[in-house]
Amino acid sequence: MSRTSKADLPRLRVGETAEELRHATWLELLYDLVFVVAVAELAHLLADDLSISGTLAFAGLFVPVWWAWTGQTFYANRFDTDDTVHRLMSVAQLLAVALLASAIGHVDERGHVFALAYAAVRFVLVLEYVRARRYVPAARPLIDHYLAGFSLAVALWVLSVAFEDTTRYTIWGIALVVDLTTPLLSRKQQAGLPPQSQHLPERFGLFVVIVLGEAVAGIVKGLVDNDGVLIPLAIAAAGIVVVVAIWWVYFADLAEAVTARTRFAGQVWVYGHLALFISVTATGVGIEHAIAHPDLDRPTAWLLPLAVAGAFLSLALLHAASSQWVRTLPRLAGAALCVLAAVFGGAVPVLALLVPTVVAAVQLLLELTPERRARYFQEREEAALEELEEDVEELQERGVRVPDMGGPPVPGQAGRGQVGAGPSAS
């Protein structure tokens, strides 16, 4: 039997050359398919109950689903070599996520299934990090930190099975706090191990496509459930405008550099996506209800504008993380108008649909304005200089000699370590 090649073992994927640009693997795309189903189940959960408690349940369950995907994404970003062992572990996670998705719509009766399935996903991730720790000595300080936090969270999820209702959900909340804060508290250990900057934005962009796809599915379902023609089609067209605007604004610039920025920007970029994913999924549910019930009952009248507001507020956070201030302010203004539409939507229901549609159209038009694009690219250059200054400062703090930016490089300094700590995430 032939031995496993070194190329098949986990290795640090940080700082790969231009010839080794990373893209999503076929395995990662297969892995994403099960999350398409999980997001659909979450959308159905919200569609069945637009009350405040139903919305909170939807948002609360979205967090572990997203974190399960994020955990595997960050592991693959740093260590994936697409070898047989990694593939088998990913398939095991895929099965666990499928089981988790099956319990979302019946979490009150099948909470133990949801908890154990999520624990299984994270346990496999822990095993992957144990394997990476063996073969990547440079990453051991970071991996040790992750293993401690993630293992504790897994234990809490398993423990929750022994309890019912409020106590169980409280333990879930504590476990999620442990899970989510573990990477945030590992900045020191992440020094020199930033994520691979081409791969990570592509992976998050693919999840954006998943939630946008669910929004489009909601529009189609709304049309199926309504026997009318003109009014449902008009509402569907408005929904398409909103979806396209979010897509256009997000993908106009993925800002790859922010994934390796130091300080606070990377964290805002990663965790800001959670709010975006929740908001876009809820937007699809709101449009579906608006098409199926054109009279716009009160739950729909507040859900749709608030969901669109959440989407543009999330986009504003992502822009701010990339120092794209020209793009940030319009998103904030649009989010504020949508919130006002939710406030007054009960008295004037048409505002709940009209305002988000107009806001989305304006956001889209602003992206197409040449003058604003020119200002935006100017900001990108300024942000790049600011990022370079931060990187130089961090290198100096770590005791690395940095040559004068206007002079020749210092002999022996090339390739000494990676710059930045990157966004904190699992």
Topology of helices and strands:
Elements: H1 26-48, H2 52-79, H3 84-104, H4 111-135, H5 140-160, H6 165-184, H7 187-190, H8 199-224, H9 230-251, H10 265-292, H11 298-321, H12 325-344, H13 350-367, H14 370-397
What does this molecule look like?
There is one protein chain. This protein is mainly alpha-helical. The protein has helices at 26-48, 52-79, 84-104, 111-135, 140-160, 165-184, 187-190, 199-224, 230-251, 265-292, 298-321, 325-344, 350-367, 370-397. It has 14 helices and no strands. Mean pLDDT is 84; it is low at 15-19 and 405-421.
Q: What descriptive keywords fit this protein?
A:
mainly alpha; single chain; 426 residues; 72% helix; 14 helices
Describe the structure in brief.
The chain is mainly alpha-helical and 426 residues long.
Q: Please indicate the percent range of residues in DSSP E strands (runs of 2 or more).
A: under 5%
User: What class would the helix/strand composition place it in?
Assistant: mainly alpha
Biggest pleated sheet:
none
State the shape.
globular
Number of strands: 0
Count helical runs: 14
